[in-house]
Design brief:
Layout (H helix, E strand, L loop, with lengths): L4 E19 L5 E20 L6 E6 L13 H13 L5 E6 L10 H16 L6 H11 L3 H6 L2 E5 L4 E4 L6 E7 L6 H12 L11 H9 L2 H7 L1 E2 L2 H7 L2 H11 L4 E4 L6 E5 L2 H14 L4 E7 L5 E5 L1
Bound molecules: adenosine-5'-triphosphate (ATP).
Length: 306
């Protein structure tokens, strides 16, 4: 008998590298990024909804505040796209249980969209390949294909062309969260403003960073972290510089604004180091809240069928 629903668990991410090329004539930037999925997860539950209600959504969990419960939610956009492409029933109930920070540069909305794609593929036994799912995903947002694949991967194009990367080891992160998000388009605009008049090269993956990942060398990885959006995020939110300084002063192996921010991700050597840095950041008063996570984590995957 067909199940009533499925639950898909989806990870947040940090960008170990984010290189941003010049602004293209289409209004977008070509980027080269190295993603790592980390162990902060949203759970996306999908079941058949009430007839003629369309796609409905409810949002709970520790980071539910500020998540739209309407058609602008990326989970609903993903469901509507899947309904159009694969002629599955149009009445669906989606429940999001959120742990990934909202508007924090950790791809929370993208993760939920990925959860819907993988969940619907399983629930309706569509048998989609990874490629087919990633194609649908890239129509919703640049980070959605990576949220499906998880692990460590290089993203090119708009970040949506994913190639898995060879990486050894596991990495411990301390995440300095902000209770006010930053808008991704606003951060890109600020980046363009700061670069005005400069000639910007095409983005390239950092060989030093890839080498650190292949060797499983956390110290070398900490030194190789880079983000072209960091200056723009700090310009819009100067307090982020203080956060970065505190983390580095307290011995983080590296610290970086994640994606378009405002989350700051610190790489540390182990759990004990993570605890010490958590205490130091809390005491500094410059951080709203702190989370710890490890990476790489798995991509979107079904954890329950009921
Ligand atoms: P990225 O790292 O991909 O740029 P982000 O982590 O900075 O994204 P999100 O958490 O995806 O940002 O949210 C950005 C905005 O998208 C939110 O402010 C919210 O209004 C909207 N949004 C739409 N759907 C969702 C969702 N399912 N979860 C969170 N936010 C969502």
């Amino acid at each position: 008998m067909k199940s009533h629903g499925v639950v898909t668990r989806v990870p947040g991410k940090v960008n170990l590298q984010l290189s941003v090329g010049p602004l293209g004539s289409d209004g977008f930037h070509e980027v080269t990024t190295v993603f790592q999925a980390i162990s902060l997860f949203d759970d996306v539950t999908i079941s058949e909804g009430v007839s003629k209600a369309g796609v409905t959504i409810s949002v709970t969990g520790q980071t539910a505040h500020g998540v739209p419960a309407d058609a602008s939610n990326l989970a609903i956009r993903a469901a509507n796209l899947m309904i159009k492409e694969y002629e599955i029933p149009a009445d669906l109930e989606i429940k999001l249980k959120k742990e990934i920070p909202v508007a924090g540069g950790m791809a929370g909305g993208s993760a939920d969209a990925a959860g819907v794609i993988v969940g619907l593929d399983s629930f309706y036994e569509l048998g989609l390949s990874r490629d087919e799912m990633e194609k649908i995903a890239s129509q919703i947002g640049s980070d959605v294909p990576f949220s499906i694949s998880g692990g460590v991967a290089i993203g090119t194009g708009r970040g949506d062309q994913i190639t898995p990367a060879l990486a050894k080891g596991s990495y411990t992160w301390v995440l300095a969260l902000s209770n006010q998000g930053l808008s991704t388009p606003a951060v890109y605009q600020e980046c363009d403003r700061l670069r005005e008049g400069l000639s910007i090269a095409s983005p390239q993956v950092s060989e030093v960073l890839m080498q650190a990942l292949r060797a499983g060398d956390a110290k070398a990885l900490g030194k190789a972290l880079s983000n072209d959006l960091q200056a723009a995020a700090c310009s819009l939110r100067p307090a982020l510089r203080l956060v970065l300084d505190v983390g580095i002063d307290y011995g983080a192996l590296g610290g970086i604004v994640s994606g378009s921010g405002p989350t700051v991700a610190f790489l540390v050597s182990d759990e004990e180091h993570a605890m010490d840095l958590t205490v130091a950041l809390s005491a500094s008063g410059v951080v709203s809240s702190i989370a710890r996570a490890v990476g790489p984590a798995h991509g979107a995957r079904i954890i329950e069928s009921f």
